[in-house]
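Report of the visiting student (M.T.), summer placement. My assignment was to run the structure pipeline on a short list of targets and document each run. The first record concerns Apple domain-containing protein.
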Amino acid sequence: MWQVLNFSQSTTSLFSNMKKSANSATRPHAIQFLIFFFVFINYLCSRTEAAAATSTQELLLGFKATPNPSVSSFQSLLNDTTDTFSLGFLRVNSNQLALAVIHLPSSKPLWLANSTQLAPWSDRIELSFNGSLVISGPHSRVFWSTTRAEGQRVVILNTSNLQIQKLDDPLSVVWQSFDFPTDTLVENQNFTSTMSLVSSNGLYSMRLGSNFIGLYAKFNDKSEQIYWRHRALEAKADIVEGKGPIYVRVNSDGFLGTYQVGNNVPVDVEAFNNFQRNSSGLLTLRLEQDGNLKGHYWDGTNWVLNYQAISDACQLPSPCGSYSLCKQSGCSCLDNRTDYSSSGECFASTSGDFCSEDKSRFRVLRRKGVELPFKELIRYEMTSYLEQCEDLCQHNCSCWGALYNNASGSGFCYMLDYPIQTLLGAGDVSKLGYFKLREDAGKRKLNTGIAAGIGILGGALLILIGVILFGGYKIWTSRRANRILEAEDGVSPGPYKNLGSASFRSIEMCNAPR
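After the run finished, the structure tokens were exported:
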């Protein structure tokens, strides 16, 4: 209102000045009109730019948007009231699109709508709001949509929670992103037993059990292996059977709290580094691509690490890749023949089992002084001797390997029902490993090495042939030049020596003036 009054006053003043100027007849009327016109256009442009700079804070029914081809990273569509969080189109792998909520100060994605089915970055892709949010493409293809929400507006709260709301009295939430996390939890977001966090590469997930938090690896298409489990200590409150499932929440006081539904007293507290310290920055918990669960807080400039579930890198599910060995000194390969440092892997990763006829053939790799990470979570049998342990795995087409530990006569035989990943180097040579290796796996690695060797040898031969040809050409051109020079001096040997003077005389006669 104040701006309108200011414009009205400035316009009145301008007319008054123009009137005085016209009365005095000091300048033509056309110039006065042009001055007023440019002032008016400048005012409109400034108001338009100010309006464009103001972020959108709600999406209403009928909203539509398409990705801008000139945007290189993130195209904002909707912000919270503090301009800390934004919903928009996020470029992925340079030519794909995800609908994302990001933390604006750091550009860090906190939530992705369509992480499992990315759309192409194209102006033919459209985000629309018709009561539900929908990402669609040509021929009515739907890449992602919320459930039939029948909402009336979309907003982002200052917690980063994206909500579809009905404008009832009181206001009702018909859908929210906090109920569908991807790989990240933010502070005060509840994570329940019906949800899962999935790492951005799709290999690892976090889920809740009846009384624990579990991290799972998808080493095989047919099964998952738990590799980290944190059981509730129940120090301040007990989990009462039949009273509801547990849920976890990243607490603003710097801890991951586990609660039972209906009870606000935590049954477990997993403290972060900033536990019970005054910290105004946003807290997050993310399942990383290496399978670790890490907590961070925003200090105003950077994300600071303040929690990690697995502190020892060798205890991660597969830090060195397939058929590898992890020690404090670094990674190596189980077969001792493959050089890990040259390629960064031992054998190409694989999946499945040995149950089908075309996959039943394998060779055996044995290794002393090896141990399993997270072995307390691995299935085992009790056997009397090594051969019995190996035999259990050999005749089980779902088994990829077995580790035998007979320390103090224990006879533990750990069975691995997934492709062999990273094992631990152990000083105790009585810890023995038996591993199945698909015949084509070694061949692929060998064939790759042979192909590389042939390529290098072929390149060297080509270079050598080129050098020889170039040298021969230089010698030939040098000799040819010498023959021509000798011919010019009249001492050139050969069948043309008697014709040299006659030839030159003919040329002179032809060129002589008439």
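DSSP finds six helices and 34 strands in the chain. Helices lie at 2-24, 29-53, 340-343, 386-394, 439-488, 500-511. I thank the supervising group for their guidance throughout the placement.
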